[in-house]
Write a structure and sequence with these properties.
The chain is α+β, with helices and mostly antiparallel strands and 151 residues long. It has one domain: Aminopeptidase. Helix content is 30%, strand content 34%. The protein has a 7-stranded mixed beta sheet with strand order 1-2-3-4-5-7-6, with helices on both faces. The longest helix has 16 residues. The protein is globular. The structure holds coenzyme A (COA). Coenzyme A (COA) binds next to strand 4, helix 3 and helix 4.
């Protein structure tokens, strides 16, 4: 298992993972623009799943996308393949982005659906504090919880 920067060749697996989890519906163009943006940090966790020397393939286990914008840094998206959740992958991805904060500022914001209990427990475990609630923020009327992390 290893972390590395996301590349364009990861996009089929990133899109598949997003579909599997059904928590967001970004299209390929949106992911591409994140990969290309100088202020974005896009990271994946992958597992080397081939023992063959000539044909090494990698299974994507998770990904995260941050905007490193000094005091306005933001976690835009984080996901772990359903079968791999609760094994520490999300924590590794989150830590990789939070470690980059020191170069750019020391706080990070994120928005999460009010009812996303799993993700909220995950963020709170990692020191994010509830900052405010955005009423009816999502198109289906669900509130957004805005969290802030301070180093
Ligand atoms: C949030 C998410 C990225 C966490 O990834 P992960 O790889 O499972 O995270 P880790 O294994 O590092 O951390 C597990 C922690 O997450 C939380 N968590 C995970 N599953 C949970 C569940 N079913 N109920 C409550 N909390 C849960 C807990 O805090 C848990 O810590 P614990 O093991 O000490 O109880 C993952 O659940 C996910 O991909 N969810 C779907 C996509 C999503 O909602 N993304 C966030 C919105 S942008």
């Amino acid at each position: 298992m290893q972390l590395r920067k996301m590349t364009e060749s990861d996009l089929p697996q990133v899109l598949e993972l997003q579909r599997e989890l059904a928590f967001q519906d970004w299209n390929e163009k949106q992911f591409l623009s994140e990969i290309r943006a100088s202020y974005a940090y896009c990271v994946v966790c992958e597992e080397d799943c081939s023992s063959s020397n000539s044909d090494t393939s990698h299974t994507l286990l998770g990904y995260a996308i941050f905007h490193l914008l000094g005091p306005d840094s933001e976690l835009l998206s984080i996901a772990t393949r359903a079968s791999e959740q609760c094994k520490g992958i999300g924590s590794q991805l989150l830590k990789a982005g939070l470690d980059k904060l020191t170069e750019n500022g020391d706080q990070c914001f994120l928005e999460v659906r009010d009812g996303n209990v799993k993700a909220r427990a995950f963020y709170e475990k990692h020191g994010f504090k509830l900052y405010s609630i955005r009423k009816k923020y999502y198109s289906d009327g669900e509130d957004a919880a805005l969290y802030k992390f301070c180093r």
